[in-house]
Structures are given as C-alpha cells and as structure tokens.
C-alpha cells in the first residue's frame, strides 16, 4: 500500500477523519448511557418524594412553579390521603453551593411545616458540605429543620440571625441548602389555594402566616 504523502492537505484530511471517528464514538456512548442515567434520576426522584411525605399517600402529578428572578422552575407534587390534601413534595435548588448547584426534595404538610427532606444532587466538599444529607434532620442543637415553617421560622443560619445551626466549617454549603429550603416553601405557598387544593381552614392559616 502506497504511503500517504505528507502534505498539509493530507494532514488536514487525516485529522478530520480522526475527529469524525471520535465524535461518532462519543455520540454512541452518550446514546447508550443517556437512558440509564435518566432512569436512575427518575427513580431517585420518586424515592425522594416518598421519603419526604407521610406513608400511604397518592401523588398528583407535578405543578411547575416559577419564582421571579430564578432561572429554572420548581416542581410541586401534591399528596393526598384518599380525597384529603395532606401536603406536597417540592423539588427545589440553589445555585450557590460551594461547588455549584444543590438540588433537594422537601416535604411539607398541609400547613406548610417541613416534614422531611432528601438531597438529590450536590458536589460539596466531602466531610464538610456533604454532611447536609443528614445534618439538617439530626436532633442536635438547632440543626433539625423538620417541623419548621417558612412563614413562622427564620430559615437562615444562626450566624445570619436565623434559627438553624450551620454545618461546622461549611457555612457556604449551609447557606445554599437553606436557600433551597426557603425557595421550596415559596414555591409551595405562593399559589397555595389554587394549586394545592387546600381546605378553607388551611387557606386561612396560609394567608395569616
């Protein structure tokens, strides 16, 4: 086989061919992994919804809620025990983590009290910011946010005048986490009567607070 002449044109052709082959290979890998990754995210989201809400509830599909100034929407999953509205799970986020975006699923009861939370995504510093997975539902000091209400409680770290103890040596991560919680409450409560199907008593509580 004749040796390809070393010219600029031939070098460009060879490099272009290599680039095309690499692009096709990367595209194939992406297509193979895209669906499993999406399936894994869906399963994690569904498990998180169940984790942050009372047992034996049925979920009404997601309401998409926008908050002024925020680049992405929030998702509210209404929960019912039979025909009775019992709360909702809110998929929320903050862009201000130490290492970027944090995504959290937060459960609220019908009066807006936090039931539980589950961290969906975070890239915080191991051993510091990553402690958010359990820190804010640990019954120690003022760490536990369960039972708090965005209308009644100051969901900021104590250093900033709030009621919640920050993760030791991870104030930025703590601030971002609590910001996501506040946004979750905002998404849940801003259209409380129209979106959640709350009873008249619950509407009055929400409006009063």
UniProtKB/TrEMBL annotation:
Gene3D superfamilies: 3.90.1010.20
Lineage: unclassified sequences, metagenomes, ecological metagenomes
Keyword terms, alphabetized: Electron transport, Flavoprotein, FMN, Phosphoprotein, Transport
Official protein name in the record: Electron transport complex subunit RsxG
Gene Ontology terms for molecular function: electron transfer activity; FMN binding
SMART domains (alphabetical): FMN_bind (SM00900)
InterPro entries referenced in this protein's UniProt entry, alphabetically: FMN-bd, Ion_transpt_RnfG/RsxG
Positions of the FMN-binding domain: 97-188
GO biological process: electron transport chain
Annotated gene: rsxG_21
HAMAP family in the record: RsxG_RnfG
Keyword Mitochondrion tagged: no
GO cellular component, one term: plasma membrane
